[in-house]
Amino acid sequence: MSDAAPPDLPTQTVDRSRLTSGWPMLLAVAVWAVGLPLLPRLGGSTVTGTAAATLVGFAVITALIAGVVLLRMPGDPIAAPFVGLVATVATLLALAPLDHPADTNALAAFLLVAPWRYALTPLVVHFALEVGWAHRRQQWTGWVVGWYAVQLGMFLVVAIGLSMNEVPLVDAVDRTFRATIVEPVGALTAAICALLALTTPVRGRVLRRALLWTVAAVILGLAPLLLGDLIPVLAQPLDGAVTPARLALFALPLFGMIAILSLPFRDAMSRDLAAHRLAAALLEGDDLSGGLWRIAAELHTTFNTRGVTVRVVDPETVVAVGEVIPTAATSPIAPDVEGGEEQQTLVAPIGRSGNPLGEVRLEARFTGAFGPTEQQWLAAFLQPIAAVLRVRRRELGQARRSDAVARQLTDSVGSLALAAQQLPFPPADEGIALPPLVDAREVLAQLSDGVTGVARHGEGLATTASEARDSARGTSDSIARALDTLSAFNADLSRLARHSAEIAASNDTISGVAFRTNLVANNAALEATRAGAAGRTFGVLAEEVRRLADTTAATSAAIAEGTAALATEVAGVGFALEGTRHALAIAIREAEAGETAAQRLSDAAGELEDAVRSLRPAVAEASAVAARRSARDQHLTAAMERFMTERAGLSRALTVHRDAMDRLARALEQLGR
After folding, report:
1. What are the two backbone dihedrals, phi and then psi, of residue 368, each rounded to the nearest 5 degrees?
2. What confidence tens digit (pLDDT) does each residue in 621-671 have?
3. Is the pLDDT of residue 126 over 90?
4. DSSP string spanning 180-235?
């Protein structure tokens, strides 16, 4: 029974994970579709066309950031809180005029915008914990769920207060408890969690870049919104509902995406590309040790380990890179992925745990280096390599069976040649009354044994040829499924390239908005200068707007650079996948050629069995003739003439048998070769 995984399972799992993680973004788009057309009726703040386009443009770019993360990390635990955070920020940007609605339609506007505002703080805390403390998820999951429940309770209380026109209750819960206590505590908690992970030697060494970007996202994205009441400049509207604090929310998804992409062992696309590249090299190469050494070197570089050991059971092969434990090559094969010595050693089987093909052992430089994320990454990395090793093991088994059949055929040919040498030559009748004394029964008994052995080996040869044909067909099917998987992967790359182009187009729009905002700020500064002392405050506001425009332009340039790098990376990945697909197509053709050779071997085995069956009656007849001749030798004097006649017949039969044996020996020698 094959231990290969069903080919449809990975794709179905990835699609389900993307749908599960991306539902907040779909909900946010639905809320936009309802809220944007109803802005004037719901009593939102008045905004001009430029300000509205700016807010919607930032919201669309934020949504595209969520799409990039879902494409690069489908099914990752960090995708769910990040996509929820992105959906929240995008909705707060798109529906910013409804954040302080008029009293007439306060409840309707509150039900559209408030759920996202109340979910913002716990989502930021959840995201920071996923980045810095994912290995302790069981310890903080209940605490985060409780925070979500508290925010939901406050939302329900405020909604009930608005419906009953209880203004003091709404002010106490929404404008006092939430705005001055809960949200500042949440932002401080998120920053402290990231800083604690950064100062921890074990976590900080691996997650330094990701944690720094997380701290920057919390400080630059969430802090201005919370400090709007303390710093009036941040809450001063630039154009209607457009305030610096509101625009600063864009830093949350932007820097959050950079933090996620900086996380190690989270990029499934790069992992699968490296694994398929090494698997293709292992399938095409003849040197098994060289292919395993390249795998060990890749893992040694990726994990920055002290040493890596790769073992394969059949054929028994051990390769090592770096400093390894001496007993690593002789210890039992691990049944499952496991970490030992305080997560300093990571051992993973190659193949399924019930029938492992070997194992990989990683030795870290410090304790706590291998957590659940590293274990899952290594297990997924070894899947295509295990499939190739299964093919190599089947090929080795077929070669061994073919060698055994060849040795058996060689032994049979030797036995037949010995029996043919012992057969007497047809005697010449020179007037001698008595033929030479020959015990034909012994010779024919050896001949019968040789024919029986040939028949037995011929039957085994037919079975072996059938197994070889079935194995070659299975190998061709496995490689074809791998080729289909690469085609689907190439389609994902094409979709990612289209998303990159959309991000670039949206980024050009933001650059234009930043340029126009800068012009507005310059005009405002000139007007403030003309106004003198009365316009000094307006001049400070114009300066802040100019700084925001410069920051937006710099961020747009960074997004353009990242988008270009992503497009280059996608192009390189597509080129590498095309090479892998070409190699797999060649392997399919070779497997089909092996199946054809196995069919020819099966046909030759059938012909051999037919020849042996036709030879058996002749051997039996020759044995009977020899028995009669032995009986007549006792009455030689009385039956000389009759014996001479039978001797001539025996001579003809021996000639026929010798010719048949010569033909059979030549056929077996050719089949053995």
Report:
1. 80, 15
2. 666 666 666 665 555 555 566 656 766 666 676 676 667 667 777 776 676
3. yes
4. IIIHHHHHHHHHHHHHHHHHSHHHHHHHHHHHHHHHHHIIIIIHHHHTTTT-HHHH
Whether 6 has a pLDDT exceeding 50, the answer reads no
In 3-state terms, what secondary structure has residue 491?
A: helix
How far is the C-alpha of 122 from the C-alpha of 171, rounded, in Å?
Answer: 21
How far apart are alpha carbons 661 and 177 in whole angstroms? 104
Sign of CA dihedral 31, 32, 33, 38: positive
**Cα 86 to Cα 251: distance, rounded to the nearest angstrom:** 11
How far is the C-alpha of 151 from the C-alpha of 115, rounded, in Å?
9
| Phi, psi dihedral angles at 417 (to 5 degrees) | -65, -40
User: Cα-Cα-Cα-Cα dihedral of 283, 285, 289, 295, to 10°?
Assistant: -60
Q: Residues 630-642, buried b or exposed e (16+ Cβ, 10 A)?
A: eebeeeeeeeeee
**Is the distance from CB of 627 to CB of 522 less than 8 angstroms?**
no
ω before 332 within 30° of 0 (cis)? no
| HEC-encoded secondary structure of 386-416 | HHHHHHHHHHHHHHHHHHHHHHHHHHHHHHH
Encoded tokens for 62: 């934020």
Rg over alpha carbons for the chain, rounded to the nearest Å, is 41
180 φ, ψ to 5°? -105, -15
**60/556 Cα distance (integer angstroms):** 14
Residue 187 contacts residue 226 (beta carbons within 8 Å): yes
List the one residue out of 397, 533, 460, 495 whose CA is nearest residue 67: 495
Dihedral angle at the C-alpha atoms of 574, 22, 203, 186, nearest 10 degrees? 150
Check if the beta carbon of residue 109 is closer than 8 Å to that of residue 45: no
Of the ranges 121-125, 271-275, 450-454, which one carries the lowest mean pLDDT score? 450-454
| Residues forming a β-bridge with 452 | none
- Give the model confidence (pLDDT) of 428-475 as tens digits: 554 444 445 445 556 556 666 666 665 666 566 666 666 666 766 677
Give the C-alpha separation, 39 to 96, whole Å: 10
Nearest alpha carbon to residue 56 among 47, 44, 68, 66: 47
CA 518 – CA 668 distance, rounded (Å): 91
Helical H segments across 426-439, by residue range: none
In sign, the C-alpha dihedral spanning 141, 143, 146, 147 is negative
Burial (CB < 10 A; 0-12, 13-18, 19+), residue 168, is exposed
DSSP string, 537-578: HHHHHHHHHHHHHHHHHHHHHHHHHHHHHHHHHHHHHHHHHH
Q: Is the pLDDT of residue 101 over 60?
A: no
The closest alpha carbon to 295, from 194, 415, 381, 367, belongs to: 381
Helix axes 440-531, 49-72, angle to 10 degrees: 160
Q: How many CB atoms lie within 10 A of CB 140?
A: 16
At 145 the pLDDT is 93
DSSP code for 176 = I
pTM passes above 0.70: no
The tokens for 389 are: 């090793």
What does the alpha-carbon distance between residue 389 and residue 385 come to, in Å, rounded to a whole number?
Answer: 6
Q: Which residues pair with 338 in a beta bridge?
A: 347
Alpha-carbon gap, residue 443 to 452, rounded angstroms: 14
The pLDDT value given to residue 206: 66
How is the beta sheet containing 317-322 ordered, strand by strand? 317-322, 307-312, 358-363, 345-350, 338-340
